[in-house]
Amino acid sequence: MYKLPNGEEIFIIDAHIALWDGSKENQLNIHGDQFISCFYDYHTNLSPDEYIWPKEKFLKYDPETLVKDVFIKGYSDIAIFQPVYLKEFYKNGFGDFDANEELAKKYKNRFICNGTFDPRHGERGLEQLEENKEKYNWQGVKLYTADWYGDSKGYKLSDPWAKRYLEKCLELGIKNIHVHKGPTITPLNRDAFDVADIDDAASTFPDLNFIVEHVGLPRLEDFCWIATQEKNVYGGLAVAMPFIHSRPRYFAEIISELLYWIGEDRILFGSDYAIWEPGWLIEKFIEMELPDDIQKETGANLDLNVKKKILGENVAALYNIDIEAHKKLLKDCSLANHFA
């Protein structure tokens, strides 16, 4: 919970976090090192100096470090795990569903554990998706369309098999489809992260919500034109947020364009922890004011009510979270004594 100087509280949902294992022991080949090193470059280039981690810590951090950074230091009330496979790069995978679930059971009502699927796994993957829904009760999935599988270096949501998986999500009640679209990561291909296939998927499945993580950067304009037409497309601010420190005017341009095109109800906060810690991102976002010339050109409004929507209320609506009721649940959480 973020408290303003006047005592007003802002409920925070960090819609994009991860607990990963990029350690050398888990790296399957050179691509495992390339991938986590590219993450580390994002981390070091866009974080304030005082928030830069040593490389060894960044490769693999323990769950309690995540809890401290996200909830105790980072103001978040709820955080959503967005795991990815990367089984071609890591022996045991980059993310771990069971590790996420273990943490969620320890800190009740603090986490939402999303899953993932890969449509290239065919019928076997569809059966696995059903089993995982039964086991983990996923409300959403995180998709990495540029992930490698055998000779394939990516897939599109418009592929026939991808549509079968999305149909299965609809059938199972997995309504929130988070898709990494935009920033490339070594050695993955830029084109496989192109935002264009969101258009067909969103039109075909109007009862699913498509959260485009990273708002398609650097293809922001493509994203905005698609999301303006497709009312079930949302913009996730992970990766865009840290520019608030290193390139504040660039971030002001991004958020203004989003507000101009898709409005204040379809923009979601995400830190992309552990690439960036949420605490400093939230502090700078609360303090931020749009430059006059940008505000005048786009007519964008970024007042406190809009910031509250972006920082938590919009995600709460997607995940059917009653914020006032959830505040009462959190009073029984083992972390409550840190905020007394």
Features:
single chain; 340 residues; alpha/beta; five-stranded parallel beta sheet; 14 helices
Draw up the topology in text.
Elements: E1 2-3, E2 9-10, E3 13-17, H1 30-46, H2 55-59, H3 63-72, E4 78-81, H4 97-106, E5 111-113, H5 122-136, E6 140-143, H6 160-172, E7 176-180, H7 197-204, E8 209-213, H8 220-229, E9 233-236, H9 243-246, H10 248-261, E10 267-268, H11 278-287, H12 292-298, H13 304-318, H14 323-330
Helix pairs in contact: 5-6, 8-10
Structural description of this entry:
The longest helix is centred in the N-terminal third of the chain and has 17 residues, at 30-46. The chain is an alpha/beta fold. A 5-stranded parallel sheet has the order 6-7-8-9-10. A 3-stranded parallel sheet has the order 3-4-5. A two-stranded antiparallel sheet has the order 1-2. It has 14 helices and 10 strands. Helices cover 43% and strands 11% of the residues.
Give a brief description.
The chain is α/β, with parallel strands linked by helices and 340 residues long.
Q: Report the order of strands and helices.
A: EEEHHHEHEHEHEHEHEHHEHHHH
SS-based structural class? Answer: alpha/beta
Instruction: Provide mean pLDDT, rounded.
Output: 97
User: What helical percentage do the residues reach?
Assistant: 40-55%
Q: What value does the Rg take, in angstroms?
A: 19 Å
**Alpha-carbon distance between the termini?**
12 Å
Roughly what fraction of the amino acids lie in strands? 5-15%
Describe the strand arrangement of the main beta sheet, using strand numbers.
6-7-8-9-10
* Approximate shape: globular
Characterize the main sheet: 5 strands, parallel
Number of strands: 10
